[in-house]
């Protein structure tokens, strides 16, 4: 796999256990937990701090912007693409020749951006092939309407990049109109619904990919499948807790989806960490933390640097081979690409297979899909979602 810096490595990326060694037995089911142990919690924070302090060194081999392989044949949907990492992903894919769909809550802002990009691109090649579709992740009805509109085109989708997310540190607990904690809905439930509903188009675009922009913060997350809304009171709600739980739930759901999709579908599922990035997310941080973002700019990526792992996961030609290698090896988690565009291991809790399947089942229940939705969509059947405003 290309190391992301324009050169090529001597071998394909490998799971944390080498695929050349004898397969290890599947992890045993674990007893139900009520939270992270102190050692897991400490290791998680060490991962978060280590990424912030050393990410620039670890990614020093990467060029900026990241050189992309030919993508003229790709159609890509990028959520949350009017600012930050998503903006960079959409623009770089479009300038490389891809057909890009900006799936955004504010279509006018996206149209203004496109006009600006077209003007700046004028004379450098064909006009950018980029369009806008409205999508509000705080409304599951909006997600269903978006998927229905796209699938009705009966065209291929090659890459879905679930980039949009929220991190409202310091804010009180808030719920969407669907009744779900906002971090959980925007960062996990809505992207999960979108990914499943777009499977027919992803099948038409096979080989295709679902790229979920995750976070190293999932290392300090813990998900209780019976309390994904964080309302039981067993854990005191903080926005940090809501964010970390939503990101871990996304990794767990992605891992089960990765296993449920048969190899012949040609759909790869990945999570990526962009690193610690200066984006509009920082506007929700406490002032002292925002000040830190400006005091230590050397350690923090700008959005273009933060976009590299997502672009790598979306375009590197050896990614499908790596994903299938993990599946054949019965590795318990999906592919996870770090901010340095290299495969890495998600958190220890992400390997909890029993909890991952419970998160899968609870997620499908929350987003109104039948338990066999993936299998039915793969077979070409239609499914019914309780959302969509039909």
UniProtKB/TrEMBL annotation:
Q: Could you list this entry's UniProt keywords, alphabetically sorted.
A: Oxidoreductase
Which stretches does UniProt call biased (Low complexity)? Answer: 9-21
Q: Which Pfam families match?
A: adh_short
Q: Which residues form a coiled coil?
A: none
The answer to keyword Oxidoreductase applying to this record is: yes
Q: Where is this region: Disordered?
A: 1-34
Give the source's domain of life in one word. Answer: Eukaryota
Q: Which GO MF terms does the UniProt record name? A: oxidoreductase activity
Spell out the PANTHER family in the cross-references.
Answer: DEHYDROGENASE_REDUCTASE SDR FAMILY MEMBER FEY, RETINOL DEHYDROGENASE
Q: Which family does it belong to?
A: Belongs to the short-chain dehydrogenases/reductases (SDR) family.
**Protein name, entry field:** Retinol dehydrogenase 11
Source organism per UniProt: Corymbia citriodora subsp. variegata
């Amino acid at each position: 796999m290309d190391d992301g810096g324009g050169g090529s490595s001597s071998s394909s990326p490998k799971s944390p256990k080498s695929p050349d060694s004898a397969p290890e037995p599947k992890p045993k089911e674990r007893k139900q937990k009520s939270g992270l142990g102190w050692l897991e919690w400490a290791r998680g924070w060490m991962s978060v701090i280590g990424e912030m302090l050393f990410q620039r060194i670890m990614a020093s081999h990467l060029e900026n912007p990241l050189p992309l392989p030919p993508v003229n044949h790709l159609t890509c949907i990028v959520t949350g693409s009017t600012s930050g990492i998503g903006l960079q992903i959409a623009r770089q894919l479009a300038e490389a020749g891809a057909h890009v769909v900006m799936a955004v809550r504010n279509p006018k802002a996206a149209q203004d951006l496109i006009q600006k990009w077209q003007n700046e691109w004028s004379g450098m090649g064909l006009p950018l092939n980029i369009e806008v579709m409205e999508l509000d992740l705080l409304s599951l009805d909006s997600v269903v309407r978006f998927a229905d509109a796209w699938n009705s085109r009966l065209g291929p989708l090659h890459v879905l990049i679930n980039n949009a997310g929220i991190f409202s540190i310091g804010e009180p607990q808030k719920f969407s109109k669907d009744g779900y904690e906002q971090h959980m809905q925007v960062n996990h439930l809505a992207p999960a619904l979108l990914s499943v509903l777009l499977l027919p188009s992803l099948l038409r675009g096979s080989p295709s990919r679902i790229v979920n922009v995750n976070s190293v913060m999932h290392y300090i997350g813990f998900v209780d499948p019976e309390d994904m809304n964080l309302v039981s009171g067993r854990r005191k709600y903080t926005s940090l807790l809501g964010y970390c739980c939503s990101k871990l739930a996304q990794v767990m759901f992605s891992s089960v989806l990765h296993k449920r999709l048969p190899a012949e579908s040609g759909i790869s599922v990945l999570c990526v960490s962009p690193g610690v990035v200066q984006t509009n997310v920082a506007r929700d941080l406490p002032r002292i933390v925002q000040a830190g973002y400006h005091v230590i700019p050397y350690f923090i990526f700008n959005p273009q640097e933060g976009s590299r792992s997502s672009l790598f996961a979306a375009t590197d030609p050896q990614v499908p081979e790596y994903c299938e290698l993990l599946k054949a090896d019965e590795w318990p988690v999906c592919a996870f690409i770090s901010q340095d565009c290299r495969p890495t291991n998600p958190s220890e809790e992400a390997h909890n297979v029993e909890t991952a399947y419970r998160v899968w089942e609870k997620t499908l229940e929350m987003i109104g899909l039948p338990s066999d939705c993936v299998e039915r969509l793969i077979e070409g059947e239609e499914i019914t979602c309780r959302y969509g405003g039909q």
